[in-house]
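Many introductory courses stop at the sequence. We go one step further.
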Amino acid sequence: MGAEKFFTAEKEGQKIAVEVKDFDAVSVISELEKTMGQLQLYQWALESQEPELQLFLAISQEIYIKHFQKPIFQLVVQRNKINLLVYEPNQEVILQWIKH
């Protein structure tokens, strides 16, 4: 996949929008704040322009294990009902779809 991208796709007949993030900033909390703002803007835009699209945040398995197991990340994901797509970048394989 890549560092940061936004694209649409289809999964089992359902259209999805995917924001890919690598969380390689010096401060992962700052990156989390920035990402939450971007996702909120994307969600609002999708609701008005393409309501059939469901938004997902794509992160590598390494980032999922390293950061998204921390309480603050879990809280943000749960409170904001962020759908996650966890992938393995070398093989370009999706490992988990986590819907909230």
